[in-house]
């Protein structure tokens, strides 16, 4: 449920807002060679595993055939016999929205809806209901408040709430903008779309997903409507400092149709292949789902995934502790899916690594060797920094021989020294290079960099 917008310094994952703006690089480059470098992929995942950087399952397909799969860690750390494997089910966050959009387009093709159908037909009490269309809900152009990301108390979504309570909370908040005037990622739109599917079909969302998608294309390990941590195949979510600790995730019945689906990377790839090949919706509907461009990365259920000269389609997502990515690149025939239930290395960096090696492109394997620096040198980097390119300040402090960084209004995070002046925070794919002689630091994340100057 997240696009990677860590680039906006959201250093604590905000559920369902897509962490990856996929970034991946904007320069042009051609894939070199045709073979997937499986040996180097093994080396990469061995490094992540031995350094406790990730737990999860990772799968690559080429020209419709699976060419690589790897699972790391445990689906339940407390039970050291429960290793992750290809059957482990993960919470896939906002990739759920692709399933929701698919069913909406099925209903459109059946003549039960149109992209111009007004929200007032189903939810007349919503603000702007007479102007908001189905198409605007799909493309994040409704302007409605976001019942996940707009909340001051981010833990509210971890408690049990009825659908009526959640819809009432959306209806009582003023919209962000007039319908259709802007695009702003909105979880509320997809909660409403899930309700519309239920109203039209007379089935619950989980039942509709099972009959309209899962059974139709053979997704044996994909389901909705399951409360947290039910069944031995579900992966629990973990965070790590010195050891893996289970995370209290959002209460998933709150986000049905938005971010609750349980699935496996193998099932996700099967779903995306079926969707793009006309087995679930028509060619016209699929094209509408992909109605994005480089200015607006979100279409009507899918998002653009740029990788050098290639342009793919897919989605990704995050909960409080799980992170997933699903993408397909027609030019190279490469598609990938991953789900992570323990993250200490950014989803974005793993995606870049997998795509680089799947396309047999040059890629430097990461090194997590940490060095110790003197207290005097660390002190020279401390202070408050600002940048003309970002509306936040970053405070650098020193504690117990380690630098800490904290952006305005956000939680602090530790910086790992990898050279005398270079530091990393791998969980968010952040690198900071200090230039104390000029009172500056270079902040990089993904393919973007910003110069910060010390203000005090």
From TrEMBL:
The keyword Mitochondrion does not apply. GO terms for molecular function: carboxypeptidase activity. The keyword S-adenosyl-L-methionine does not apply. Residues 58-344 form the Beta-lactamase-related domain. Coiled coil: none annotated. Keywords: Carboxypeptidase, Hydrolase, Protease. InterPro entries: AmpC-like, Beta-lactam-related, Beta-lactam/transpept-like. PANTHER family: BETA-LACTAMASE-RELATED DOMAIN-CONTAINING PROTEIN, D-ALANYL-D-ALANINE-CARBOXYPEPTIDASE/ENDOPEPTIDASE AMPH. This is D-alanyl-D-alanine carboxypeptidase.
């Amino acid at each position: 449920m997240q696009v990677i917008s860590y680039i906006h310094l959201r250093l604590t994952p905000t559920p369902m807002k897509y962490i990856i703006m996929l970034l991946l690089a904007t320069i042009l480059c051609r894939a070199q060679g045709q073979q997937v470098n499986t040996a180097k992929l093994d080396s990469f995942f061995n490094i992540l595993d031995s350094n406790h950087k990730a737990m999860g399952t990772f799968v690559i397909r080429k020209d419709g055939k699976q060419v690589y799969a790897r699972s790391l860690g445990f689906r339940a750390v407390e039970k050291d016999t429960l290793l992750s494997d290809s059957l482990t089910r993960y919470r896939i966050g906002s990739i759920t929205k692709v399933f929701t959009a698919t069913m909406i387009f099925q209903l459109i093709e059946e003549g039960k809806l149109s992209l111009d159908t007004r929200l007032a037909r189903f939810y007349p009490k919503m603000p702007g209901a007479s102007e908001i269309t189905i198409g605007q809900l799909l493309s994040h152009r409704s302007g409605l408040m976001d019942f996940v990301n707009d909340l001051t108390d981010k833990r509210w979504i971890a408690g049990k709430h009825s659908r009526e309570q959640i819809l009432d909370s959306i209806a009582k908040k003023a919209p962000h903008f007039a319908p259709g005037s802007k695009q702003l990622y909105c979880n509320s739109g997809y909660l409403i779309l899930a309700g519309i599917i239920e109203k039209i079909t007379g089935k619950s969302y989980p039942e509709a997903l099972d009959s309209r998608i899962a059974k139709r294309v053979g997704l044996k390990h994909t389901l909705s409507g399951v409360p947290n941590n039910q069944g031995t195949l579900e992966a629990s979510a973990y965070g790590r400092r010195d050891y893996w600790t289970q995370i209290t995730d959002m209460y998933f019945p709150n986000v049905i149709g938005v971010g609750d689906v349980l699935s496996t990377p193998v099932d996700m790839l099967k779903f995306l292949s079926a969707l793009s090949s006309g087995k679930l919706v028509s060619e016209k509907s699929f094209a509408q789902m992909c109605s994005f461009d480089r200015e607006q990365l979100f279409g009507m259920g899918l998002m653009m995934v740029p990788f050098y000269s290639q342009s793919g389609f897919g989605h990704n997502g995050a909960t409080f502790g799980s992170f997933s990515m699903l993408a397909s690149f027609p030019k190279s025939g490469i598609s990938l899916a991953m789900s992570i239930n323990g993250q200490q290395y950014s989803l974005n960096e793993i995606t870049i690594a997998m795509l680089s090696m799947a396309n047999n492109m040059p890629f430097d394997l990461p090194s997590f060797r940490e060095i110790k620096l003197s207290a005097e040198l660390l002190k020279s980097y401390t202070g408050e920094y600002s940048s003309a390119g970002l509306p936040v300040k970053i405070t650098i402090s020193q504690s117990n021989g380690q630098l800490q960084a904290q952006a305005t209004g956000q939680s602090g995070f530790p910086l790992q020294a990898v050279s005398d002046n270079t530091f990393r925070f791998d969980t968010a794919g952040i690198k900071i290079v200090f230039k104390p002689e000029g009172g500056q630091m270079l902040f990089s994340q993904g393919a973007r960099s910003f110069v910060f100057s010390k203000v005090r």
